[in-house]
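Troubleshooting log. The previous structure file for this entry was overwritten by mistake, so regenerating from the original sequence record. Sequence copied from the archived sheet and checked twice against the printout by T.R.
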Amino acid sequence: MQKSEKSTKTTPWSWVPSLYFAEGLPYVAVMTISIVLYKQLGLSNAEITFYTSWLYLPWVIKPLWSPFIDLIKTKRWWITSMQLLIGAAFGGVAFTIPTHFWLQGSLFFFWVMAFSSATHDIAADGFYMLGLDEHNQAWFVGIRSTFYRLATIFGQGILVMIAGNLQVIYRNSIAFSWSLMFYGVTGIFIGLWLWHSYILPRPDDDQPRNDINARTIWSEFVHTIVTFFQKPQVVVGILFMLLYRMPEGLLAKVSALFLIDAGHNGGLGLSPMEYGLVQGTVGVIGLTLGGILGGIAAGRDGLKRWLWPMVCAITLPDLVYVYMSFALPDSLFIINACVFLEQFGYGFGFTAYMLYLILYSQGEFKTSHYALCTAFMALSMMIPGLFAGALQEAVGYRAFFLIVMACCAVTFIVTSFLKIDSEFGKKTEEVE
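Regenerated output below.
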């Protein structure tokens, strides 16, 4: 494939790491930082989980508009435009937090951020394949994942810590401190927009497609959906996509609320600085290490060999929250160890889920079917999250975490119906 002159001269190191850092940061802001923000601003757990779970919607419906990005402008244009819009959304959140309409205003701008981030994901992943040859695509796949994880650590770790430190400096002025933090992230995204506007290569193939129109795209999309639902084991496959992570869908947002909730409410009462260390740093490291080990194991012996150990890994470590809700440990070391164990298990067990999405997507429409699978993946977290907070408020943290453990039976049941080739996932010898 021929690249343009600028594409040839621009080293991928100058834009791949920053591009995927820019991809990860708004996602973690929408999904995690918003939870801590709204908890500190006084919303109930039911309100927090309901409002923030709806923010999954752009990633659920992303396949509906992703084909149309090819019709308008270039992927490079979409990337830089969405980064500018994301920066504006961060600024909007920062502006509205200290106002009397902080809830409506911040939710609106989080929605803008979510749709912009989902669109940025589509354009960035497509641009990655256009801006790099096949060798560099393979070489930088680990780099892009690493910087996405670093964005997660920076977002729910360092940024939350900064907000907490600002509260100390400004004598517990919570709204003002969060506002300052979000203004800082606005500046970061303006910098990323300026950088990528200058440094991103201009591949010759990155052009709007004139050989297609909205009608042909819609016709192909309908055909893609029809063929998706004609696959073998379609009912089992969709149930697996929706229910495998049901315990985690319930746990994800409530676990964060449990860590920061006051002791008289049954929580651990962590400060923003402590939460940033526990969940945003130690937890993310555990998640990353678990995912790496899961990939190595599945690559060596295949998915079928490791399926049930991965099912146990993604469910059984949830017991640590049962333990913490009863013991209410004061030791930050014990809390860190528990969160690390749960996140490590989740990372290891999540490998089975991602590999199954790849397996289900195999065939003529691999890319489009995988996009539909990821929509079900987002839906699997969105639906339980909508009522998780209300359930927790009704029964308390201890009973809630016991219910999460009971729901682990659903994960075992849907997994038991899968039919997986014993060779799938194994590394094969390739002839150069």
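Residues 1-8 have pLDDT under 50 and may be disordered. Archived copy saved in two places this time.
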